[in-house]
Amino acid sequence: MRITFLGGAETVTGSKFLVETGQSRILIDCGLFQGYKWLRERNWQQLALDVHELDAVILTHAHLDHSGYIPVLYKQGFRGQVFTHHATKSLCQILLADSGHLQEEDAKYYSKHKLGKHAHPEPLYDRRTAENSMELFQSIDFDELVEIKDLRFYLQPAGHILGAASIILEAENKKIGFSGDVGRYSDVLMASPRPLPALDHLLMESTYGNRQHSNVDSLGQLADVVNNVARNGGVLLIPAFAVGRAQALQHILASLMAADVIPKIPIYLDSPMAIKVSDIFCEFKSQHRLNTEQCHRMCDVVTYTQSVEESKALAGQKYPHIIIAGSGMATGGRILHHFKRLLGNNKTTVLFTGYQAGGTRGAQLLEGANVVKIHGEWIPVRAKIDSISGLSGHGDYLELCQWLKNSDLTGSTQIHLVHGDAEALDGFRLYLQENTPFAVNVAVYGSVLQV
Ligand SMILES: [Zn+2]
């Protein structure tokens, strides 16, 4: 068996691992490269793979850095099956269509403003192609054994987001594990990741390979922020990712209100995508920690604003209130309209709840910027800018290590580190070499592993 690292190696995005046996050829994950321009350019390069010779794709989870390249394969003529968990299929239906839509918008913007000078005035794929590619999806349960020619595999829960799985694959008398993104032992929504069985090889994610989540009480922090906003009579703006983070915030705010820790001020979820994801979340009750009552409470406590008109009407709402809107790093989405309206008001508080990549408006605001540019306009910042940590969907290096120790892996298991930036990969390699019996190396982009 050969495994080729076509993406998600030496970086956190573009996850793609090609597995070739004597009879079959399958792709594990099919993600978009994201972030820096030199990485995004890889989405436009010819993949070292003839899609017509590909038997199937297996997806670990719905995040675009693992699924967002499926429509490109479809566009190139791939018509095999895409196997994944039922919840991942439901989430992909929303995320892939949105990804196609955003790429159409970007292409339009570049054609209009750069007059064709941009390298790619065409979208990588459009919304219709993304929607059509869903016909390839074949959703399955956790632990359902699937055979493809001479190999077989099953999914097991990884706790990262709804439907997130590790893949356990067997062929030619070898057993290989693909961790996918691994969740946490104390996530507010998702159950803990299931330990792995004995394996010959493991491709292991390393996003937080050199970092530890802080032990601060994030619920207490959030309660303090809400109480301050309620006292001052302003608006609390929370930029949030549509999958996972928005639902965690809904649940935490609902619980704090039910326990009378914070006052019952209006909460608006101003993100059509997050609204759909929240519905899916409540549909897949067995996949997370919340019971029916908690799901109802989480949805009841929030007012959904679907249309642009409803979103605009929030400007007329009484203070204090809370608005949760995308995008999580304030790089786009409806949060920007609220920023334009409210950043100049010293009664506004902006609360970031996740990692803010360098160069984004989120990072600029956290660094104390006095003005930020939004839609070509400079907006003064008088709002209070705050952040809480602890809501991450990724295990830190200690949790990842705990997961490995809980597993049935032995000293003969070889671990290949993927899905991390250079420092995280190297830090995690050193830590594992010193603290575990496993043989560990960092997978190189484009390299081939003979199993
Ligand atoms: Zn992920």
Relevant terms:
single chain, about 450 residues, alpha/beta, Metallo-beta-lactamase, Chain A, Rossmann fold, 2 domains, seven-stranded mixed β-sheet, 14 helices, about 30% helix, binds zinc ion
Describe the fold and architecture.
This protein has helices spanning 37-40, 64-67, 70-75, 86-113, 127-133, 218-232, 245-258, 272-283, 292-300, 308-313, 335-342, 361-366, 397-406, 422-435; strands spanning 2-7, 16-20, 25-28, 56-58, 81-85, 137-140, 146-148, 151-157, 165-171, 174-178, 201-205, 235-239, 267-269, 302-304, 321-325, 349-352, 371-374, 377-380, 384-387, 414-418, 439-442, 448-450. It contains 14 helices and 22 strands. The chain folds into two domains: 2-211 and 393-450, Metallo-beta-lactamase, Chain A (4-Layer Sandwich); 218-387, Rossmann fold (3-Layer(aba) Sandwich). The strands form four sheets. Strands 6-5-4-3-2-1-22 form a seven-stranded mixed beta sheet. The N and C termini lie close together (5 Å). The protein is an alpha/beta fold and 451 residues long. It is globular, with a radius of gyration of 22 Å. The model has no long low-confidence stretch (mean pLDDT 93). Helix 4 (86-113) runs antiparallel to helix 5 (127-133) and helix 4 packs antiparallel against helix 8.
